Amino acid sequence: MKSNKNPYDNMLEQLDAAAKIADLPIEEYITLRYPEREFTVNFPVEMDDGSTQVFTGYRVQHNSIRGPYKGGVRFHPDVNMDEVRALAAWMTFKCAIVDIPFGGAKGGVTCDPSRLSQKELERITRAYTVGIAPLIGPEVDIPAPDVNTNAQVMGWMMDSYSTYRGQNVPSIVTGKPISIGGSLGRREATGKGVSLMVREIAKEKGIDLKEATVAIQGFGNVGSVAAETLYGMGCTIVAVSDISGALYCQNGLDIPSLLQHVDSHPKHLIEGYTQEGLECIDNHMLLTLKVDFLIPAALENQITEDVARETKARIIVEAANGPTTFEADNILEDRGITVVPDILANAGGVTASYFEWVQNLQYLTWDEEKLDANLEKKMVSSFQSVYNTAKEKNTSMRMGAYIVAISRLVEATRLRGKI
Ligand code: NAD
Fold first, then answer.
1. What does the pLDDT look like over 33-56, one tens digit per residue?
2. How far does residue 415's CA lie from ligand 1's centre (Å)?
């Protein structure tokens, strides 16, 4: 069962633990414990049945010491300030790890997109964008997609913001449709980045990907692209799940035909998929399977203490943000299970977003090969800094990742004369 732990407390525990290992006094990094700004917007939306409903949205701007705020927008019934705050902080660390000139932010609207029509979704998106419009800007704060938001939602955000400004402003969001300033390769970048991290850690651990088994929780943007890329690299994907359930096949799922099924499913779910040797399992079973790689690619707090004690995965590559609780992390470390942390593993998304933003500001378009080559370069060099730091400090990759991030952030804070 998902833990109810406050994800911001989880983030603070991780940050303080890393600072301790790096011998960093609290005065040096105290600003990172607090978001710079937090906003709540309440806005009325006309529903299809003619009624009016008031929705609540958030935008948290955690830190801007290294550049404009950057972070996705989530639409989900569980969205709340604590979650958005934690996700914003993780963006700050992520951008520092991949060394791109952005700070961290996150946004969200508490709503259930599975119960909304496209028109209602569009009206919510537009009203939320107008609500946060005075706070964002192409050189101030640049939103992007996250859970339950996609290129279409970004298209509506870009249009609403452009109307507000009275001019076309494609660089206000990343992850837009290609035809209105989006970048080739952005949609796939997070999942591809996750796969590159699997490849790099496999090299370090002497695992042959052609012999490797993988289980993936979540089959949305990130999980499905990771499945497709890893399948292409020769891995056997034995299990995947989404909100409709989990599927297991000992000999490996036929990922291309599963992707086709999901594409044609009205709600883009894995339910109803059939293949020889397929078994339906539950979420807990998926998370505790004996596999080489477990990839949580859904929501936070999924790897609880129980899961950490029972999982038989060799390596966990965190595609989702905050999927492992602090306590579970300690158990995994004690059990010798390697975790490639979220702030490194899923940083391919924001890296490609940075490339999209650069293209928009320069009125240029890159081909997909150029984006992929630059993405790979950034992801591999970031992996190496994190892996080597963890080795040097004799600590976990999560602590290594935080140490890389904090040292860059503290350096920038010092150089700007703020400490
Ligand atoms: P998405 O909405 O496209 O997909 C989420 C998937 O998780 C869906 O398949 C959904 O059915 C599934 N899911 C939700 N709850 C579940 C549960 N309890 N058990 C099993 N499956 C469940 O979202 P996404 O963009 O793929 O994001 C997934 C994760 O990756 C999130 O944590 C997000 O913050 C993170 N992330 C996304 C990006 C990006 O570029 N989209 C970048 C970095 C990190």
1. 999 999 999 999 999 999 999 999
2. 37
pLDDT digit string, tens, across residues 201-231: 999 999 999 999 999 999 999 999 999 999 9
User: How far is 210 from 228, CA to CA, in rounded Å?
Assistant: 14
User: Ligand 1 pocket test: which of 112, 243, 271, 356 has the largest number of ligand atoms within 8 Å of its C-beta?
Assistant: 243
Best of 146, 188, 382 to mutate for ligand 1, by most ligand atoms within 8 A of CB?
146
CATH annotation of 189-345:
3.40.50.720
Domain(s) of CATH 3.40.50.10860: residues in the chain: 37-170
Say how many Å lie between the CA of residue 291 and the centre of ligand 1: 21
* CA pair distance 253, 66, nearest whole angstrom: 43
On whether the CB atoms of residues 300 and 322 are closer than 8 A, the answer is yes
**CA of 364 relative to ligand 1 center, distance in Å:** 30
pLDDT exceeding 70 applies to what percent of the chain?
99
Q: Which CATH architecture has domain 37-170?
A: 3-Layer(aba) Sandwich (3.40)
Please indicate whether residue 322, judged by its CB atom, sits closer than 6 Å to ligand 1.
Answer: no
pTM above 0.70, yes or no: yes
Quick one: pLDDT band at residue 362, thresholds 50, 70, 90?
very high
Catalytic residues: 106
Q: Output DSSP code: residue 137.
A: B
Q: At what angle do helices 397-415 and 7-21 cross, to 10 degrees?
A: 80
